[in-house]
Design a protein that fits this description.
Two copies of one chain form a homodimer. Chain A is an alpha+beta fold and 454 residues long. Chain A folds into two domains: 282 residues, Zn peptidases (Aminopeptidase, 3-Layer(aba) Sandwich); 120 residues, Alpha-Beta Plaits (2-Layer Sandwich). The first copy, chain A, has 13 helices and 18 strands. The radius of gyration of chain A is 23 Å and the shape is globular. Strand 11 of chain A pairs antiparallel with strand 11 of chain B. Chains A, B: One of its GO terms (biological process) is proteolysis. Chains A, B: It comes from Hymenobacter perfusus. Chains A, B: Keywords: Hydrolase, Metal-binding, Protease.
């Protein structure tokens, strides 16, 4: 089948680039029309590859693109999930080429969404086309691609709860994660959850002249900095009371197993241009990213930020603060702890508002399941090397939701790399990874169908 | 003469409003043409009121508007200084009316620059017109209005050094400060200096996904917050080594005298909507603003600041940090101490750049001089109450420069109020204050000329 892929790879890339050209940024209302265009584009591709009952399912937000092919109700069914919305692309000036004018350079596709997640979703569409040319599907397939993953998947849960029969399946398949390296295939089996907040600190009732008032009023920016700083202690532990109460503690054996993942701190530092690693004392880099909860400021702003100097004491200062969660923390628990704590530590003289943005639950997926083995075997076939199970730091909140609502486990068959700069300027996706994904996915279906039937 | 003022006050206000309509924002290059138009407008008004040798003196930056009237070389000469440039007006959305569409509401002129300093400069122009109608000038007058005060007066010192003969005078008169209240006239006799910096903290070489990297790299925003927080101790003392070395320590008597200024912490808090005052332990609000150096963040930014949530670890974080200085600190000394300290406290894993913006020296002007008495007498005549000498918190860096370059003391005959919201949205200037300034200034010239001659 490699030859069909080889013969059609130029067309596959062209189609993907056309899709990437549509700026489907869900976080910014001004792109709303583009988000809908991206959904329509995908729907048309679903129809081309023979999916049936294709529709844009309305939600209170962006529509979910759905299609299915039921070849035999007696066969197992795989439900594919992904998302067609993308992260905001700013700061635009740091992109070497415009984020929505995709280019292929050095065998990489550069565009916002190239990897996260349009590129990975499109592998599934083309894998279907390829299977059609090679004996048809080995099992039933349902595909559900949403448009609000980057803003918290607020309407997906509602849709899933309302459509349990329609979405009935045996396993969930998602390509929205990465692997260790192109010659080091791996499958994520643990994902951190998320609790994300915007905080607002208000001091004086208007901006003040720092000469006339400086030194005699609480400056909201200084106060916000102090509050943020107090959220970590000198060992980089998070100081929110009860924050660690439910963190699953791994045994020494489990930690040793985890640290067997190929990882070099030197290469890690080099790849991001830092002289040192950093983080919670007593844990390795792999552990800090995989099994420990963290707290980071994702954005901060206040006062005068233009050219030159303005001697102002701002009335308000803002920050976006998120925490990555691990089993058995829950987003709801941590959101509440953060909110209470942040309001409590506000010094007299300022008022604080905490607005939770969205959350997601941490998950660990089983490595002893039929589906995991089918995926590992598929990768071994196409990469020539057995993949390593890893625990990544990112969050795919809907994995926990699929488990609770549909009772289904998920396989995270992702082909991205840490260096793909997703959520950053110059996001890209390797042409190798895109094609290898299209090649690998059909093996998964065949392995899975054979194992379940057998 | 009050009747001439009464008869012409509508016209005076109309002329000022026309000038305020020109957005002479010096900090932002896109207003450069407007800055020049504001200078031309002023030059035309100088000619109308009979100033001679009127010119736009070129500098490496914005021109200085100059004019003079020498009625008799044997008489004393007053050099008037002011500025026609204004602070940036953003955030625009917080203005009740657009900053460059001046309106008069509740007897106040609302516009950027209404008080600081176009409104106060224009009082001097109209005071000249009034004296022309009332027996002419009692002494020689030179007027020098610059266009770069809000960005540090970088070219004024060069101009002054190159034109010492042209600027020869006996005293400097400036209206760019405030008084305690409309029924509590006062004259500023102490001004704090300024050291202003932009700092940049760089962590990883690109923005990173907080899920994949969070907890394992130094987050530049968190680091910047921690560095800023460390600049004050628990008593709100500034922690920069040697920072207080040269601070003039007042005697108990001097402090008691200073605290006799009418001030109510309750009214102060109420006026800015704060439940508490705040500041360096061991000092009153009046002392914190008047005689103690301070450090404030004037702006901060980094990471994602748009709508919604983006789970990013920013590569860079920025802040604008300024210190207000008191005698006998110097801007050069403190700029160097800050720079060294801020670079030294950067933790391993980030790099720090400190870019000084501009500075200014603290000054105390004498209260026993002929010029101060002439000003105090003038205010007593028009306000019916002897003004109180105060030590304000703002900075007029050029006062120290005039002393060192021209050997001249300055009288700060300002008519603004703390509540005028200069440097803030809804800057305004009382119609009362504008007219009272025009009425008071001629008395100063007459008192001063009489005292020097006598």
């Amino acid at each position: 089948m490699a030859s069909f892929l080889q013969q059609n790879q130029e067309r596959f890339l062209t189609e993907l680039l056309d899709w990437l050209r549509i700026p489907s940024v869900s976080a910014d209302p001004k792109f709303h029309g583009d988000v809908l265009r991206a959904a329509e584009y995908l729907k048309a591709r679903f129809l081309e590859v023979g999916l049936e009952n294709v529709e844009l399912c309305p939600t209170a937000g962006n529509p979910i693109v759905y299609g299915e092919k039921i070849i035999d109700p007696a066969l197992p069914t795989v439900l594919v999930y992904g998302h067609y919305d993308v992260q905001p692309a700013d700061p635009y000036e740091l992109w070497d080429s415009p984020p929505f004018e995709p280019v292929i350079k050095d065998e990489k596709i550069y565009a916002r969404g190239a990897c996260d997640d349009k590129g990975q979703v499109y592998m599934h569409v083309k894998a279907l086309e390829m299977m059609n040319q090679d004996g048809g599907l080995p099992c039933n397939i349902k595909v559900m691609i949403e448009g609000e993953e980057e803003i918290g998947s607020n309407n997906l849960g509602i849709f899933v709860r309302a459509n349990k029969e329609k979405l009935k399946a045996d396993v969930i398949l998602i390509s929205d994660t990465g692997m260790l390296a192109n010659d080091e295939p791996s499958i994520e089996v643990g994902l951190r959850g998320l609790s994300y907040h915007e905080v607002e600190v208000t001091g004086p009732n208007r901006d003040l002249h720092s000469g006339l008032y400086g030194g005699a009023v609480a400056n909201p920016i200084n106060v916000l900095c102090k509050m943020i700083t107090s959220l970590h202690d000198e060992n980089n532990h998070i100081t929110i009371p009860e924050f660690y109460n439910n963190v699953a503690v791994l045994t020494d054996e489990e930690r040793a197993e985890l640290n067997r993942v190929p990882h070099s701190d030197d290469e890690f530092k080099k790849s991001i241009g830092l002289p040192d690693t950093y983080g919670e004392q007593g844990y390795t880099t792999v552990e800090r990213i995989g099994i420990r909860p963290t707290l980071d400021v994702n954005g901060i702003w206040g006062g005068y930020t233009g050219e030159g100097a303005k001697t102002v004491i701002a009335s308000k200062a803002y920050a976006k603060i998120s925490m990555r969660l691990v089993p058995n923390q829950t987003s709801e628990e941590i959101t509440q702890l953060f909110q209470q704590h942040f309001e409590r530590i506000a010094p007299s003289g300022v008022t604080v508002k905490v607005k939770p943005h969205h959350g997601g639950e941490p998950v660990v997926t089983p490595t002893d399941s039929v589906a995991y083995k089918a995926a590992a075997d598929a990768m071994e076939t196409t990469f020539g090397k057995r993949p390593i199970p890893t625990r990544g730091g990112g969050s795919i909140p809907i994995v926990a939701m699929f488990k609770s609502e549909l009772g289904l486990d998920t396989v995270l068959l992702g082909f991205g790399l840490d260096s793909d700069a997703i959520h950053s300027p110059n996001e890209h996706y390797g042409v190798f990874n895109f094609l290898k994904g299209i090649e690998t996915i059909p093996h998964f279906y065949r392995n899975y169908a054979a194992a379940v039937k057998g």
